[in-house]
Amino acid sequence: xxxxxxLTRGAEAFLSQHPGVSLVALGSGAHAESLDLAPLGLPVRxxxxxxxxxxxxxxxxxxxxxxxxxxVPRWVLSDLYLLPGAIGLLRCPARMVRPExxxxxxxxxxxxxxxxxxxxxxSVTPGxxxxxxxxxxxxxxGAAPWVKVLxxxxxxxxxxxxxxxxxxxxxxxxxxxxxxxxxxxxxGGHEYGERTFVYESDVSDGARVAEAMERRxxxxxxxxxxxxxxxALSGLLDRAExxxxxxxxxxxxxxGHVLVREGEPG
Length: 266
Ligand SMILES: CC(C)(COP(=O)(O)OP(=O)(O)OC[C@H]1O[C@@H](n2cnc3c(N)ncnc32)[C@H](O)[C@@H]1OP(=O)(O)O)[C@@H](O)C(=O)NCCC(=O)NCCS
Known about the structure:
The protein is α+β, with helices and mostly antiparallel strands. It folds into two domains: about 1-155, no CATH class; about 160-265, no CATH class. About 30% of the residues lie in helices and about 30% in strands. The chain contains eight helices and eleven strands. The chain has an eleven-stranded mixed sheet with strand order 2-1-3-4-5-6-8-7-10-11-9, with helices on both faces. Strand 4 and strand 5 form a beta hairpin. Bound molecules: coenzyme A.
């Protein structure tokens, strides 16, 4: 990521506002040397998954808690998350996370736990990662966008493709990294296919990501489309798949509508 100094300042401010939060990566020990373990200048503690089974188990439970029926199966966690890559985690004392997490894991206030996590899978296209799972149990703190930014910096990602539902609050988080270019429908279909889309974020320029994180220089939308208007949303995906440039612009989702900008974002 080039020109990341403003982003570094933002990440440092986030960490100083939330004492006790630290950045950890969990993945196959083989990958430690391939990652940037000082993303944006902040230290990451790399924990090899082969020797940190308890943390892997905690991630598994929390992913299943966050995603319910489509939570990650154990073999997918090992074969498709931890063997090919590494999960970025924000760890913190259990007192900081939602009470249901403490209860589910049986944690005392000062026990360390996962507060937020992001996994993006490597793809066969150089520089392109695929966003797979974002979860946060630290609501209203900015942990969700920051764990995403820091993990992508650790992976040295330049572009990101991800899958989202029009009506999921995560659209607001994804749009904190910059405008979301609509790509189209999910290859091969999806459990929530009728309300799901693929987007792409350009994360190569740290200065632009920093502006977006602070919601500076917002791009005005040209259309607002209700998240319940599935025919109109499907029409947007038809146009995106035909090659038209369409973005969701900040804050992405507002009062039940997605904010669309037609044409180059400028
Ligand atoms: C989605 C998730 C990561 C959001 O994390 P969070 O800590 O709750 O996020 P925040 O409290 O910071 O809120 C994020 C944004 O959503 C908005 N938001 C929160 N709840 C909302 C709701 N019910 N409706 C609309 N917007 C909402 C917030 O205003 C905020 O937007 P802003 O930063 O522009 O103000 C978290 O809820 C989660 O883990 N969900 C389960 C897993 C999931 O669905 N992941 C995303 C798909 S990969």
